[in-house]
Specification:
By secondary structure, this protein is mostly helical. It is built from twelve helices and no strands. It has two domains: 32-241, UbiA prenyltransferase (Tetracycline Repressor, domain 2); 246-343, no CATH class.
Length: 343
């Protein structure tokens, strides 16, 4: 047997190829005007509204309300149109302020805007007209949905449009005042409430309870996306929450409190009784209704899950703490995302 050839000490280990970044839009890549305008709405991010609408439909179905397919489809479509309009309006006003043009540390496509204006794919004027046209298209659809459900739906729709517009547009410019996270939370909570309202024909607490955790998590994503833009935003006078706090304090807030608190809210909905158990009485002698929502007493980083204690007293199989398990699974990923964004 031949002796093994010793490995040269000068041999360098093979470097793993870097992940290629998505290409920014160009006029040559989007020659079709319809495709160009559609891509300007950032369709990949509209999936957040799609999920919000499905959540609202789920809360209505959970309450025993039959889902009307036509109304559900119309609600979903025009909610997506409203979100698309807000995205385009955001690009328009960020271009006006100069923050997107000056952003050299962006992580496309997540931060720094769609780059349609900066790369000459759409003009500033065309972008503004398109964004306001999308928001205007939602108005007659909202009036029709209010006519077939209940007039109070107009309040939800009007509030949603105002939030979507005021997030970026002067004179309110909520994101520039450090209030963007509150606007995002309100906007996506309204998506869930509105989708439920069209089916229910009235207000209820169920979509609020189910939608609040979802809306807060959406706001957390937008909060994380502010980190790569912090220098450009500060230079343009766009004082987001991250700009106001500074990167170090903002990063600590995100990692220390955000995930654990918001997943604790999600647990309130996760512990709700299922459709089969919603009307079922508790076990004999049990002081805790089966499936009752249980909040984490000591946050997501430790402590005893009170719902599990109740299950033991009721003689049922203990349920794991949803927020405890989910936080351990998700928090490292959130931290990695923030660390990548702030390199």
């Amino acid at each position: 047997m031949l002796p093994a050839t010793p490995r040269s000490t000068d041999e360098k280990p093979k470097e793993e190829p870097e992940m290629s970044k998505p290409l920014e839009p160009t006029l040559d890549a989007l020659p079709n005007p319809l495709l160009r305008y559609f891509a300007a709405t950032r369709p990949a991010f509209l999936s957040v509204t799609f999920v919000g609408c499905l959540l609202g439909l789920a809360t209505a179905a959970f309450s025993g309300i039959p889902i009307g397919p036509a109304l559900a489809t119309a609600t979903l479509f025009f909610a997506l149109v409203a979100h698309a309009g807000a995205n385009v309006i955001n690009d328009y006003y960020d271009a006006l302020s100069g923050c997107d043009g000056a952003n050299t540390e962006r992580q496309f496509p997540f931060t720094g805007g769609s780059r349609f204006i900066q790369n000459g794919v759409l003009s500033l004027r065309a972008t503004g007209i398109f964004g306001y046209a999308l928001l205007a298209a939602v108005v007659p659809a909202g009036l029709w949905l209010a006519a077939v459900s209940a007039p109070e739906l107009m309040l939800i729709g009007l509030a949603g449009l105002v939030v979507g517009w005021a997030y970026s547009a002067p004179p309110l410019k909520l994101q520039s005042r450090g209030l963007g996270e509150f606007a995002i939370t309100a906007g996506w909570l309204l998506v869930v409430i509105g989708s439920d309202f069209v089916q229910r024909h009235g207000f209820a607490f169920v979509p609020v309870a189910a939608g609040l955790g979802f809306a807060l998590l959406v706001a957390n994503v937008l909060y994380i996306n502010q980190f790569p833009d912090v220098k450009a935003d500060a230079a343009a006078g766009k004082h987001t929450m991250v700009v106001r706090l500074g990167v170090a304090r903002a990063l600590g807030l995100c990692a220390d409190r955000g995930v654990g608190l918001w997943l604790a809210i999600v647990e309130g909905a996760a512990g709700a009784p299922s459709g089969d158990d919603a009307g079922r009485p508790a076990a004999r002698g049990c002081q805790h209704r089966r499936g009752a929502p249980a909040l984490v007493a000591r946050g997501a980083t430790g402590g005893t899950h009170p719902g599990a204690q109740a299950d033991r007293r009721c003689g049922e199989r203990p349920r794991p703490a949803v927020s405890h398990l989910a936080c351990h699974a998700l928090e490292p990923r959130v931290l990695k995302a923030v660390q990548f964004a702030t390199r």
